[in-house]
Design a protein that fits this description.
Blueprint: H1 2-7, H2 12-33, H3 37-41, H4 56-61, H5 74-88, H6 93-109, H7 117-129, H8 142-174, H9 178-181, H10 185-189, H11 198-206, H12 209-228, H13 232-253, H14 256-265, H15 272-279, E1 288-293, H16 297-309, E2 315-320, H17 333-336, E3 341-344, E4 347-350, H18 352-361, H19 369-377, H20 380-398
Parallel strand pairs: 1-2
Antiparallel strand pairs: 1-3, 3-4
Helix pairs in contact: 2-5, 2-7, 2-14, 2-15, 5-6, 6-7, 7-8, 7-14, 8-12, 12-13, 13-14, 18-19
Length: 412
């Protein structure tokens, strides 16, 4: 097993997906707290903090508590959000994870009294993820590459073990309480003003057996998860049940950060094929080749736009002046005039699917990606693309260069 850790990347795609999800969560959490920054993080906030003792630990993780740095605490948010954005885009991911960890620790140490289990877990996961190769690309050859693979695999396994330990310890502690033993823990929990919910409390009073079901289901899940999550056939049902439980905690008990972080942590248990399917719809830093016939007017306009917006230079435009010399375009001649193709390794996409690949690599166009995915699901995107491409072709036909039938196909 140890030799395998150094020989191959076991979690290449899953680690990449988990990095993106964890950074997105940290960004959303900080953005939600920013409107109240002075009250929570300011130097005059009513928050009990540890003293800056001048140790190396304080200079790294408690720098915001230094008297000279305290008034400039917002810069920690600037560094954190900047590292998060660059990390999501895949730019120097390991360096960005280190910056995100250090800045997040300084922010959290300014607001210790409002942290919950979700914040504490995210700190631990961030620490492990600094050691993981989340670039999506295999490590290089030689002893340095083997060391990096072993370190990355080991750290990611620690992420998984940390999550399993959370459930195991929670289950052991719950079983010591008599309310969890007799099945009435959720009944009394939802009656409280702090963690209760009026509607759920009413249901518990009207049908007390709901507390019995919920209490024992929670206990069973917390004991089954540390064992069953390692088995692929159990993984999907456990993740589904876990998401239902933690979304109930987030919106029913008000422990929003804890519930969502636990749901997010399940991504670390995704098999590689699950993660690869999800990553197809997410931003990436892989190089993409787009190829088309220069007689395709809509393709030319797309290439011109991409050349202006692609500041990361992840897109290579391969124009072919002679249709007979299109080695990358193994499609009929009539389709070459209406299709732009995207070549990413062994995968080849065309039309609107190629447009999606372009969106994933141009940061300025990322806000358009959710709408584009919706258009792809309902088929409207491909139909619209076909209309625009055919319209350009029809304009060429009106000049006498080709003849189309009613469905837009060429005929002699």
């Amino acid at each position: 097993m140890i030799q395998r850790l150094a020989r191959e990347e076991l979690f290449l795609k899953t680690a990449q997906l988990f990095r993106i999800a964890l950074l997105v969560w940290l960004g959303l959490h900080s953005i939600l707290l920013l409107p109240f920054h002075e009250t929570i993080f300011g130097p005059h906030a009513y928050v009990m903090r540890t003293r800056f003792d001048g140790s190396i630990w304080s200079w790294i993780f408690h720098l915001g508590q230094h008297s000279a740095v305290g008034p400039y605490y917002l810069w920690f948010f600037v560094v954190q959000l900047g590292a998060i954005v660059l990390g999501i885009l895949g730019i120097w991911p390991r360096i960005m994870m280190i910056l995100a960890y250090v800045s997040t620790m300084n922010i959290y140490n300014l607001s210790g009294v409002i942290l919950d289990g979700g914040n504490n877990l995210s700190q631990l996961l961030l620490f492990y993820m600094m050691l993981v190769n989340t670039s999506g690309r295999p490590s290089g050859p030689g002893w340095l590459g083997a060391f990096n693979r072993a370190l990355s695999n080991g750290a990611f396994i620690m992420c998984r073990l940390q999550i399993a330990i959370v459930y195991l310890t929670a289950g052991l502690l719950k079983l010591q309480g008599h309310l969890w033993q007799n099945g009435m823990a959720l009944y009394y929990l939802f009656q409280s003003e702090t963690y209760g919910h009026p509607w759920i409390a009413y249901l518990m009073r009207k049908w007390p057996f709901l507390s019995l079901i919920g209490t024992y289901t929670t206990l069973a899940f917390q004991y089954l998860f540390p064992l069953g999550i390692w088995l692929r056939k159990w993984r999907k049902p456990l993740i589904i049940v876990g998401c239902m439980i933690h979304l109930g905690i987030a919106f029913g008990m008000g422990l929003f950060t804890f519930g969502l972080v636990m749901c997010l942590s399940y991504i670390s248990f995704f098999p590689e094929d699950w993660s690869e399917r999800v990553l197809r719809f997410m931003p990436t830093d892989e190089t993409l080749v787009i190829a088309f016939d220069e007689q395709c007017a809509v393709c030319m306009r797309i290439a011109s736009l991409v050349s202006v917006l692609d500041w990361r230079k992840l897109i290579i435009v391969d124009r072919a002046h002679d249709p007979k010399d299109l080695r990358l375009l193994d499609i009929p001649l009539e389709q070459r005039l209406t299709r732009i193709q995207a070549i990413d390794g062994a995968r080849n996409r065309e039309g609107f699917d190629a447009m999606l690949e372009l969106l994933r690599r141009v940061p300025l166009l990322l806000p358009c990606l959710p709408l584009a995915l919706l258009m792809r699901v309902n088929g409207w995107g491909q139909r619209r693309y076909d209309y625009l491409a055919t319209r350009s072709w029809r304009q060429a036909c009106r000049k006498g260069t080709c003849v189309l039938d009613a469905r837009g196909h060429s005929r002699s």
